[in-house]
Automatic annotation (TrEMBL), chain A:
Organism of provenance: Leucobacter triazinivorans
This protein's UniProt keywords: Cell inner membrane, Cell membrane, Membrane, Transmembrane, Transmembrane helix, Transport
Topology in the lipid bilayer: Multi-pass membrane protein
Residue segments, region Disordered: 1-23
Molecular function, one GO term: transmembrane transporter activity
One of the record's GO cellular component terms: plasma membrane
Compartment(s) of residence: Cell membrane
CDD domains per record: TM_PBP1_transp_AraH_like
Domain of life from the UniProt record: Bacteria
Name by which UniProt lists this protein: Autoinducer 2 import system permease protein LsrD
Ranges of biased composition (kind: Low complexity): 1-18
Transmembrane domains' residue ranges: 38-59, 65-85, 92-112, 118-141, 153-171, 191-216, 237-256, 268-286, 293-310, 316-339
From TrEMBL, chain B:
PANTHER family in UniProt: ABC-TYPE SUGAR TRANSPORT SYSTEM PERIPLASMIC COMPONENT-LIKE PROTEIN, D-XYLOSE-BINDING PERIPLASMIC PROTEIN
BP GO annotations: rhamnose transmembrane transport
GO cellular component, one term: outer membrane-bounded periplasmic space
Keywords: Signal
Keyword Signal: yes
Taxonomic source organism: Leucobacter triazinivorans
Annotated signal sequence range: 1-28
Name listed for the protein in its UniProt record: Rhamnose ABC transporter substrate-binding protein
This protein's record includes keyword Signal: yes
UniProtKB/TrEMBL annotation, chain C:
Residues annotated as transmembrane: 25-42, 54-72, 79-96, 102-118, 125-144, 175-196, 225-245, 257-274, 281-299, 305-325
InterPro entries cross-referenced by the UniProt entry: ABC_transp_permease
CDD domains assigned to the protein according to its UniProt record, in alphabetical order: TM_PBP1_transp_AraH_like (cd06579)
Protein role: Part of the ABC transporter complex LsrABCD involved in autoinducer 2 (AI-2) import. Probably responsible for the translocation of the substrate across the membrane.
Subcellular location(s) of the protein: Cell membrane
One of the record's GO cellular component terms: plasma membrane
Upper lineage: Bacteria, Bacillati, Actinomycetota, Actinomycetes, Micrococcales
Alphabetical list of Pfam families matching this protein: BPD_transp_2 (PF02653)
Gene source species: Leucobacter triazinivorans
Record's subunit section: The complex is composed of two ATP-binding proteins (LsrA), two transmembrane proteins (LsrC and LsrD) and a solute-binding protein (LsrB).
GO-annotated molecular function: transmembrane transporter activity
Keyword terms, alphabetized: Cell inner membrane, Cell membrane, Membrane, Transmembrane, Transmembrane helix, Transport
Topology in membrane: Multi-pass membrane protein
Name of the protein in question: Autoinducer 2 import system permease protein LsrC
Length: 363, 351, 343
């Protein structure tokens, strides 16, 4: 009897903790204005204004073009990565998938395939690679961190097998030109239209569909998600398929932008993407995060990056700034949360003098 | 699409959209205030030059850039800058070129990590009025004005073959330990070596058994060297046409039973190779003076910018203390012959 | 994954040793098979020089994997180890170059303390702020690397700058074993004993199996996790000093990209990525297997382009075996509990 009583208070306490730690309600204007997203977007705008004022030549359509061309691969891959991390999983193999598609595209083109066919087949290769991850993680139930470290090595290895030490460069010029072309005088690259479409699809999927709400539920608790009727296995599988497909798009973009297909294209991009997603307010434990926040975060890192280059500040500074931003961004809210939690626990203890206030599980 | 969305959702989307468009507007609006890129300076007094090496924080690069900075001030550039990536990957140089394009730099001097990956960006810089000098490692010839090469590529290849042939007595198995599999200059030298091995009767008894790549990484090169010894027990010599590779291989040989048994030569920095020459691991190796490479590049850039040369074959320009240089076929400028270092002369050099 | 580990956790005390042994078995078999096959094809692989190289190559990775195991067992991860190693290795080089006649033991001590300080930064951020280690150490990976770049610039220190006795550590042998490999073995043995035989060591498993239960049990989670990071930092520091002894140059990029290899070595060695199980010995064997495979493939003259793909397959196989093993163990524990009840 006492047992059930304690467990009841336990559940009550932990639920109220979750609610308190979160802004109330997942939709609504208030959340946008006060939440993490708003902070990120505000930070981005302030950064842009400051740079425009203090860095000579920053405020120019050229900046818009070069900057966006630089961030597109990260922006693309960050979309499925956001959804995956929200479910409490991770995908470290994305950059290797991009490398593998880049290598395959080059080899197929060199072998005389029609360019459009080669691009289509490369996307299919990316989708297949994603499905391979998905099967191991969703159906077999292996931990995603470990699996994708393995496929990170495997897919990069296959890229090497496919293209070896060759580089394919002579892609049709119209394809290269299209990738770097701009929309009139705005400086915005034409491909941004497609990229924004991808962002919109993932944004709608995450924030406005039952599927998206299911992902948050999975991030909080897989058991609970299954209990309320979410097909955890299938959802996860399709996320990895999507991640593979989008990584393939990034790989193709990479190949055409640099007009160079090599086995080492996009090496190390996975950590950049994860860093951008986490900076955008996505919790590594799952259950929290949003597309606007990640979008702003990718642009923020890209802007700082480009401005520093324009100001000829060494990349060393950028590396340190990225790391520091990442840490500050997670430490600040958690200090706030810790203070709130402390107050909350004290209140609970006051109200329920006999029960030991159970702490959160923490790290 | 909006019909299926809930009311609140639509508002949120609209807000996010408007923030993005405000940001875009802000950028575009400020644009009129900016100077834009590529306005070439009129007089020779305020010309700017920027060096983009393969990778920053690399000892060989530092020597090259030291010479470059010296050349830039001697040639009369108003400002000279060094920017570049921390990693030597194919695409990492592109955003630096973009930033320089936008900064309106007059001369960009670049050592390409990938001959093609940098091309579109360099084309854009040229259309903005910048002159492009490739040095150390060439880009695709279509997207630069001149290439300042250490030495004639074929000479570098041949001198390394001569050295190894001498050291192994003209016969036996040899292997090549190179930088990355895509490195332009290394691959060119290797191609010349293979051609020469196949055609020159003096080398008929030398067999090139394999090529391995240490990726210009100390650890990886070290382990590749080690793997070579096991895979090819009869190996007589190694050619490593890269400063990182030869030093790592020398380090392995000098700490193993193969010291003195397996010959090693290639391209190395005297300061890095000194202990291995003194302890007998390495007899002779070659290199040019990296500082001169940077020095000549700066003068080539100056000559291009003020219109003295166009990069056509037969053009000549003054390269400061080093005297006149001529542009050869394919827009290639040769700095000078390689130097061979051995126990007798290595102490005379400090780089 | 977490459900299976928490099922195994309760009868831990009696079954722990058997369970651990089972987890090390697959990697041992793979290692023996690999070495055996390679030796059969190319006897030079196990020549005195070949064996020595094999052990020397694995040494640094073994030490890093052992340290990483401590952290992973507590359901954390340290991605900054490559950056720590780089900083300490460069620090070692600059100590020898700038402090005339500094004794070698002092360099080791300073290197380990330096590593400990960096590890403590990770540990403090993770425990005090209660933030996931993956995020924190991804951040410090960048920061430490940035500091290294800023500190070193284009400077590199070469083997020539260091005393011969120091470089000799990486070559000299004792009873046929390279001295630095013996150091690595001592590290593994000490950690293995500490993990299995001390209260603090067992606490680490408890924290990783079920943090909430560990807290209810009265385990000082924060302090234990902090010390795991501290110890990992010390070991990365030790590895950094040894790196400087073994390799020719240390500079701004030393140790770049090592982190995922270290985690991979631990995973291949049967350390569960979500904590609570695995052993230092297994991780050490995993490191040995991964470094051996590169050497073995070269000795077998397998096309170098296949090497990385094979490493990937190996990692996936290890996780699969681990999964099968843990399902089987869980089943065995269930039936075992049932039969005990019958008695």
């Amino acid at each position: 009897m006492t047992n059930t009583e304690t467990s009841a208070t336990l559940t009550a306490a932990s639920t109220s903790k979750t609610l308190r730690g979160e802004p109330k309600g997942r939709t609504g204007l208030a959340r946008i204005l006060l939440g993490r997203d708003a902070v990120m977007i505000g930070l981005l705008l302030v950064t842009i204004v400051l740079f425009a004022l203090f860095i000579p030549r920053f405020a120019s359509p050229l900046t818009v073009g070069f900057l966006l061309l630089d961030v597109i691969p990260v922006l693309l891959i960050a979309m499925p990565m956001t959804l995956i991390i929200i479910t409490g999983e991770i995908d470290l193999s994305v950059a290797s998938i991009a490398g593998l598609t880049s290598a395959s595209l080059g080899v197929m083109w060199a072998a005389g395939f029609d360019m459009n066919t080669a691009i289509l087949l490369s996307i299919l290769i990316g989708v297949a690679a994603g499905a391979f991850n998905g099967v191991l993680i969703a159906f077999v139930g292996l931990p995603s961190l470990a699996v994708t470290i393995g496929t990170l090595a495997l897919f990069r290895g296959l890229a090497l097998v496919v293209i070896g030490d060759n580089a394919v460069a002579n892609f049709p010029p119209e394809y290269n030109a299209f990738v770097t072309s701009k929309l009139g005088a705005t400086g915005i690259p034409t491909v941004m239209i497609g990229v924004l479409a991808v962002v919109a699809v993932f944004g709608v999927l995450l924030h406005f569909t039952p599927f998206g709400r299911g992902l948050y539920a999975m991030g909080y608790s897989k058991e609970a998600a299954r209990f309320v009727g979410i097909d955890v296995v299938k959802s996860k599988f399709w996320l990895y398929v999507a991640s593979g497909g989008v990584s393939a798009l990034a790989g193709i973009y990479w190949t055409l932008r640099y007009s160079s297909a090599r086995s080492d294209n996009a090496t190390g991009l996975e950590l950049t993407v994860v860093a951008a997603v986490l900076l955008g307010g996505v919790s590594i434990f799952g259950g929290r995060g949003s597309i606007p926040g990640v979008f702003a975060s990718v642009l923020l890192i890209g802007t700082i990056n480009y401005a520093l280059r324009l100001g000829r500040v060494s990349e060393v500074v950028l590396v340190i700034v990225t790391g520091a931003l990442l840490i500050v961004s997670v430490v600040t809210p958690s200090i706030g949360a810790a203070l709130r939690r402390l107050g909350h626990e004290r209140r609970i203890r006051r109200e329920l003098p006999r029960s030991d206030g159970p702490g959160p599980t923490g790290a | 699409m909006n019909l299926s969305l809930k009311q609140r959702g639509r508002r949120r989307l609209a807000l996010a959209g408007s923030i993005v468009s405000i940001a875009a507007l802000a950028l575009a609006g400020c644009a009129s205030g900016g100077t834009g890129g590529g306005d070439a300076a009129e007089g020779g007094e305020d010309l700017t030059i920027t060096f983009i090496p393969k990778q920053l924080n690399n000892p060989y690069t530092d020597v090259v850039l030291g010479g470059g900075e010296e050349g830039a001030s001697a040639a009369g550039f108003a400002s000279s800058q060094v920017v570049g990536p921390l990693d030597a990957s194919a695409s990492s140089q592109v955003s630096f070129i973009n930033a320089e394009t936008q900064a309106g730099t007059n001369v960009i001097v670049i050592a390409a990590n990938d001959p093609d990956a940098v091309c579109p960006a360099l084309e854009e810089a040229r259309s903005g009025g910048a002159k492009i000098v490739a040095f150390d490692s060439d880009t695709n010839p279509d997207c630069r004005d001149v290439f300042v090469s250490q030495v004639v590529a074929k000479d570098v290849a041949l001198i390394q073959l001569e050295l190894i042939s001498e050291q192994i007595g003209g016969e036996g198995e040899i292997a090549i330990l190179s930088a990355t599999a895509n490195a332009t200059n290394q691959n060119e030298w290797i191609a010349f070596m293979e051609e020469e091995l196949a055609s020159n009767p003096d080398y008929a008894d030398i067999e090139l058994v394999t090529k391995v790549y240490g990726d210009d990484d100390d650890t990886k090169s070290f382990q590749e060297a080690q793997g070579l010894m096991q895979a090819y027990p009869d190996l007589k010599g190694i050619i490593s046409p890269t400063t990182v590779g030869i030093a790592a291989t020398a380090r392995y040989l000098s700490t193993s039973e193969y010291k003195g048994q397996v010959a090693l030569t290639g391209l190395g920095l005297p300061n890095e190779m000194r202990p291995f020459v003194k302890d007998g691991t390495v007899t002779e190796f070659a290199l040019w003076d990296p500082a001169q490479l940077g020095y000549v590049s700066a003068f080539a850039g100056q000559a291009l910018a003020d219109g003295t040369i166009t990069g056509a074959e037969g053009d000549t320009f003054e390269a400061g203390d080093l005297g006149e240089r001529e542009v050869g076929a394919d827009g290639i400028v040769i700095v000078g012959p390689p130097t061979v270092f051995n126990a007798d002369n290595i102490d005379d050099y400090d780089f | 994954m977490s459900t299976t580990t928490s099922q195994i956790a309760p009868p831990r005390r009696s079954r722990l040793s058997g369970l651990l042994r089972a987890r090390e078995l697959p990697v041992s078999i793979a290692l023996i098979a690999l070495v055996g096959l390679t030796y059969a094809a190319n006897p030079l692989f196990l020549s005195p020089q070949g064996t020595k190289d094999l052990l020397l190559n694995a040494t640094i990775m073994i030490i890093l994997a052992a340290g990483q195991t401590l952290v992973i067992i507590t359901r954390n991860i340290d991605l900054s180890v490559g950056s720590i190693l780089g900083l300490v290795a460069f620090g070692t080089g600059s100590l020898f170059a700038n402090v005339e006649g500094i004794p070698i033991w002092a360099v080791f001590a300073i290197g380990i303390v330096f590593g400990a300080v960096l590890g403590a930064v990770n540990g403090l951020l993770v425990t005090l702020a209660g933030v996931p280690a993956l995020v924190i150490t991804l951040g410090t990976l960048y920061i430490f690397r940035g500091v290294n770049n800023w500190w070193a610039g284009g400077t590199q220190y070469f083997a020539d700058d260091r005393p011969d006795a120091f470089g000799g550590l990486a070559v000299d042998t004792l009873f046929g074993f390279p001295i630095i490999t013996l150091i690595a073995i001592v590290v593994v043995v000490v950690l293995a004993v500490a993990l299995a035989g001390t209260r603090a060591g067992r606490d680490l498993y408890a924290i990783g199996s079920d943090p909430a239960a560990a807290r209810l049990f009265g385990i000082a989670i924060g302090r234990r996790v902090f010390f795991a990071f501290l110890a990992n930092g010390m070991l990365a520091g030790l590895a950094g000093v040894l790196y400087a002894a073994r390799f020719n140059s240390v500079g701004a990029t030393t140790g770049t990209g090592m982190e995922l290899n270290v985690v991979a070595a631990a995973v291949v060695g049967g350390v569960a990525i979500f904590g609570g199980s695995g052993s230092v010995v297994g991780a050490g064997l995993g490191a040995l297997l991964l470094t051996t495979i590169t050497g073995a493939l070269t000795a077998l003259r397998v096309d170098k382009f296949w090497q990385q793909a094979i490493v990937g397959v190996l990692i996936l196989t290890a996780i699969l075996i681990d999964r099968v093993a843990s399902i089987r163990t869980a089943r065995r524990l269930k039936t075992g509990a049932a039969s005990e009840e019958k008695k």
